Amino acid sequence: MPRDHSREQPQWLLARRSALTARQLLRAYGLLCLFSLAIAAAFALRGFWSILVFSFAELGLVALALLYYLRHARDYEHIALRDGELIVEQVSAGHCRRHHFSPCRTRVAVPHWPRQLIHIHEFGVGGAQVDVGVFATPERRRQVAQELLALLPPPISPPAPP
Asked: Cβ-count burial of 114 within 10 angstroms (0-12 exposed, 13-18 middle, 19+ buried)?
């Protein structure tokens, strides 16, 4: 059965790449705790209690760093054209920010430099703006911006001031 291209709603997902899953990270941390506390216990039996204190401090700091890593492991940006509206959703540390744009009043700036993000701007009264593409490579940012530009209608020029 042929696909109905008129019903397709284009979308892009730009997600952070995580090297480890939560389970792998927990296992690695458990092994680190086991190894570090075994060495610290051996020193504590010899009378060097300060090693055990520093071992607990080290493991606590590593735990904080791993919690920060896990908190941001599922960050993403989602861009979608749905029902005549451009929706940009940004999720960071579980907090979601959603921006809605009118396609005919929206301009998209294609990034030209490696660290430049995709700038989406809606002109007019109270025009919103957002930068996206933090988790994408420069090539992917350019590709997404060009595809988005091709799908959006040409922007209506704002009226000239009298």
From this structure: exposed
61-to-20, 54, 55 alpha-carbon distances in Å: 19, 11, 10
Distances in Å between the alpha carbon of 40 and those of 31, 44, 54, 57, 158?
Answer: 14, 6, 9, 12, 69
Amino acid identity of residue 157, one-letter, is S
Residues 6+ apart with CB under 8 A from 128: 99, 100, 101, 121, 122
**Residue-by-residue DSSP string for 87-98:** EEEEEETTEEEE
Q: How many CB atoms lie within 10 A of CB 106?
A: 22
Residues 18-45 have a mean pLDDT of: 94
Average pLDDT of the segment spanning 77-99: 93
Q: Is the pLDDT reported for residue 145 higher than 70?
A: yes
